[in-house]
Write a structure and sequence with these properties.
single chain; 241 residues; alpha/beta; Rossmann fold
Length: 241
């Protein structure tokens, strides 16, 4: 834990003001569902900041739990070392742990989970024990053909995470980061072949999750093919209602 005396005053004031602003925000527990490239990664930081939520990306949380050697992290590592999938109960347990952090006080954004109906049911059971429930499921609905154009044009500056797109947000010099002048890379996942198999598993496994939450009246369909600013406006409309 950092000694507060060593934290610059400006940083302390900024954080204090942020917390005061957050205290008046309504609690929100949100799930973002959408195929790869549908814009979840663009919208989640905006939603996180606007509503003072914590962003729970299950892949990152699993890696953090394994690195911290928490009891659940140790169990997860055992499964991963054997080449097995980490069980749904373990993942839900890790989410449960993460929710107890002060940064999750106002609620959370879950991204990458639940991917199956069974996972959704287990998540609901865990929240029910806490006297909580999911408030909204944001469904980033988009046509597969649009996704292919979006994803295969994506380029990344590895050290900063800055992203570019050959059509929508090209760098000033093709293949070069605007800030550092270093070369951009394309992720192994960002090819048409990989996208096709990821979309197939999304349609097979995760679309039933949307139906599951639709029956509970929790789903808001977003027009994820629109430009990011328009999607942000849609999200704000949905979450203010």
């Amino acid at each position: 834990m950092a000694n507060l005396e060593d934290v610059p005053s400006l940083d302390l004031m900024t954080e204090l003001l942020r917390r005061m602003k957050c205290s008046s925000k309504p609690d929100k527990r949100l799930i973002l569902i959408g195929p790869p490239g549908s814009g979840k990664g663009t919208q989640s930081p905006i939603i996180k900041d606007e509503y003072c939520l914590c962003h729970l990306a299950t892949g990152d949380m699993l890696r953090a739990a394994v690195a911290a050697k928490t009891p659940l992290g140790v169990k997860a590592k055992e499964a991963m070392d054997k080449g097995e999938l980490v069980s749904d109960d373990l993942v839900v347990g890790i989410i449960d742990e993460a929710m107890k952090k002060p940064s999750c006080q106002k609620g959370f954004i879950l991204d990458g989970f639940p991917r199956t109906v069974v996972q959704a049911q287990k998540l609901d059971e865990m929240l029910e024990k806490q006297g909580a429930k999911v408030d909204k499921v944001l469904n980033f609905a988009i046509n597969d053909a649009i996704l292919e154009e979006r994803i295969t044009g994506r380029w990344i500056h590895p050290s900063s995470g800055r992203t570019y797109h050959t059509k929508y947000a090209p760098p000033k010099v093709p293949g070069i980061d605007d800030v550092t002048g270093e070369p951009l890379i394309q992720r192994k996942d960002d090819t048409a072949a990989v996208l096709k198999s990821r979309l197939e598993s999304f349609h097979r496994q995760t679309e039933p999750v949307i139906d599951y939450y639709s029956k509970k009246g929790m789903v808001a369909d977003l027009h994820a093919e629109k430009p990011p600013k328009e999607v942000t406006a849609e999200v704000q409309t949905v979450l203010s209602s």
